[in-house]
Amino acid sequence: MAAAVAFALMVATMAATASNANAQLLADPYFYDAVCPEALPTIRRVVEQAVAAEPRMGASLLRLHFHDCFVNGCDGSILLDDTPFFTGEKNAAPNMNSARGFDVIDRIKDAVNAACRGNVVSCADIVAVAARDSIVALGGPSYHVPLGRRDARTASQAAANNSIPAPTFDLGRLVSNFASHGLSLQDLVLLSGAHTLGFSRCTNFRDRLYNETATLDGSLAAALRGPCPQTGGDDNLAPLDPTPARFDGGYYGSLLRARGLLHSDQQLFAGGLGVTDGLVRFYAANDDAFRRDFVEAMVRLSSLSPLTGSSGEVRVNCRKVNYN
Ligand code: HEM
Ligand SMILES: *[C@@H]1O[C@H](CO)[C@@H](O)[C@H](O)[C@H]1NC(C)=O
Ligand SMILES: *[C@@H]1O[C@H](CO)[C@@H](O)[C@H](O)[C@H]1NC(C)=O
């Protein structure tokens, strides 16, 4: 296992170098200030309302950004609806019955187009900013979101199936998946910290309760077997960490106590001398460092292969491509 991780780490480093060389970096958090100074305050207002009405929505909007960015870059592709003539990403395995927040994105888009008196803010930028505002609304750190993404005119269900990591992955596959997106092993540990927020469905952690008991705390397993029986109850929810509506370092503390809900979560901490073990111990003990390093990793996630300049378009309706 140590050799596999060392190899994956090497691949991660190489991939990060390669992709940074090609990335069209977004660097401008003030992209909309001249054309629509009301854009960002409008997004924040709708996000705050949605999170106040349902705290979990903040988690869902954050995850939406992750699932957008990991499939051919942060280009709003996840927002496109399926039609009889078009298959998008919403029914790909990682998103089906799982990705949520699309109607909040619609509300933001309508409010932004009204505030801007026109269609100038891309759906991809809206998702990126809504993720940041969700983190902040739930007590997390703020950061400047680089802007200027444009929206894809395509989507790929196959890429969504293949590019988003699964909760069944072991550490080596998690690391190589992140490397394939130009993200490091440390980014993997940091961005997994997003699981300080939100919930998982039983279907994604059942094996932990009945088949992986060696790496799961006994009292947590016992408590979860009620809501997550061996058969049935697939969509019943459990929190990913003890405080699913508060952005904090509790996720890492849970891993130290073998209370990671998903197999992929607990893979980051095996209690030994592994690199990720050290990082988990460090962030569990240093909340300020977690908050500081997490936002840097978010900016890297947010900057994956954007469409810029005259590529793509600014969609009028986030659910469908413009006619032309
Ligand atoms: C490292 C690999 C990752 C895996 C295998 C993974 C897997 C999952 C799974 C299986 C769920 C539960 C979905 C459901 O049952 O419907 C989930 C929820 C969530 N994930 Fe991840 N995830 C990963 C990384 C990330 C990253 C990088 C972020 C954001 C930066 C993120 C943010 C979230 C959030 C906020 C939720 C809760 C969503 C809600 O309550 O609606 N995850 N993840
Ligand atoms: C993606 O995965 C889903 C669910 O497993 C499957 O039904 C679908 O055929 C897959 N799509 C592609 C293009 O591979
Ligand atoms: C339990 O895990 C083992 C090894 O990962 C696997 O072969 C087996 O199919 C699993 N059993 C169940 C009931 O999920």
Automatic annotation (TrEMBL):
<feature type="disulfide bond">
    <location>
        <begin position="202"/>
        <end position="228"/>
    </location>
</feature>
<dbReference type="GO" id="GO:0140825">
    <property type="term" value="F:lactoperoxidase activity"/>
</dbReference>
<dbReference type="GO" id="GO:0020037">
    <property type="term" value="F:heme binding"/>
</dbReference>
<keyword id="KW-0106">Calcium</keyword>
<dbReference type="GO" id="GO:0042744">
    <property type="term" value="P:hydrogen peroxide catabolic process"/>
</dbReference>
<dbReference type="InterPro" id="IPR002016">
    <property type="entry name" value="Haem_peroxidase"/>
</dbReference>
<feature type="domain" description="Plant heme peroxidase family profile">
    <location>
        <begin position="31"/>
        <end position="322"/>
    </location>
</feature>
<feature type="disulfide bond">
    <location>
        <begin position="69"/>
        <end position="74"/>
    </location>
</feature>
<keyword id="KW-0575">Peroxidase</keyword>
<keyword id="KW-0560">Oxidoreductase</keyword>
<dbReference type="InterPro" id="IPR019794">
    <property type="entry name" value="Peroxidases_AS"/>
</dbReference>
<feature type="binding site">
    <location>
        <position position="89"/>
    </location>
    <ligand>
        <name>Ca(2+) 1</name>
    </ligand>
</feature>
<keyword id="KW-0325">Glycoprotein</keyword>
<dbReference type="GO" id="GO:0046872">
    <property type="term" value="F:metal ion binding"/>
</dbReference>
<keyword id="KW-1015">Disulfide bond</keyword>
<keyword id="KW-0349">Heme</keyword>
<keyword id="KW-0376">Hydrogen peroxide</keyword>
<dbReference type="InterPro" id="IPR000823">
    <property type="entry name" value="Peroxidase_pln"/>
</dbReference>
<keyword id="KW-0732">Signal</keyword>
<keyword id="KW-0479">Metal-binding</keyword>
<feature type="binding site">
    <location>
        <position position="165"/>
    </location>
    <ligand>
        <name>substrate</name>
    </ligand>
</feature>
<feature type="binding site">
    <location>
        <position position="196"/>
    </location>
    <ligand>
        <name>Ca(2+) 2</name>
    </ligand>
</feature>
<dbReference type="GO" id="GO:0006979">
    <property type="term" value="P:response to oxidative stress"/>
</dbReference>
<feature type="binding site">
    <location>
        <position position="77"/>
    </location>
    <ligand>
        <name>Ca(2+) 1</name>
    </ligand>
</feature>
<feature type="signal peptide">
    <location>
        <begin position="1"/>
        <end position="23"/>
    </location>
</feature>
<dbReference type="GO" id="GO:0005576">
    <property type="term" value="C:extracellular region"/>
</dbReference>
<dbReference type="InterPro" id="IPR019793">
    <property type="entry name" value="Peroxidases_heam-ligand_BS"/>
</dbReference>
<keyword id="KW-0408">Iron</keyword>
<feature type="binding site" description="axial binding residue">
    <location>
        <position position="195"/>
    </location>
    <ligand>
        <name>heme b</name>
    </ligand>
</feature>
<feature type="binding site">
    <location>
        <position position="248"/>
    </location>
    <ligand>
        <name>Ca(2+) 2</name>
    </ligand>
</feature>
<dbReference type="InterPro" id="IPR033905">
    <property type="entry name" value="Secretory_peroxidase"/>
</dbReference>
<protein>
    <recommendedName>
        <fullName>peroxidase</fullName>
        <ecNumber>1.11.1.7</ecNumber>
    </recommendedName>
</protein>
<feature type="binding site">
    <location>
        <position position="241"/>
    </location>
    <ligand>
        <name>Ca(2+) 2</name>
    </ligand>
</feature>
<feature type="active site" description="Proton acceptor">
    <location>
        <position position="67"/>
    </location>
</feature>
<feature type="binding site">
    <location>
        <position position="71"/>
    </location>
    <ligand>
        <name>Ca(2+) 1</name>
    </ligand>
</feature>
<feature type="disulfide bond">
    <location>
        <begin position="123"/>
        <end position="318"/>
    </location>
</feature>
<comment type="similarity">
    <text>Belongs to the peroxidase family. Ascorbate peroxidase subfamily.</text>
</comment>
<feature type="binding site">
    <location>
        <position position="75"/>
    </location>
    <ligand>
        <name>Ca(2+) 1</name>
    </ligand>
</feature>
<feature type="site" description="Transition state stabilizer">
    <location>
        <position position="63"/>
    </location>
</feature>
<dbReference type="Pfam" id="PF00141">
    <property type="entry name" value="peroxidase"/>
</dbReference>
<feature type="binding site">
    <location>
        <position position="73"/>
    </location>
    <ligand>
        <name>Ca(2+) 1</name>
    </ligand>
</feature>
<feature type="disulfide bond">
    <location>
        <begin position="36"/>
        <end position="116"/>
    </location>
</feature>
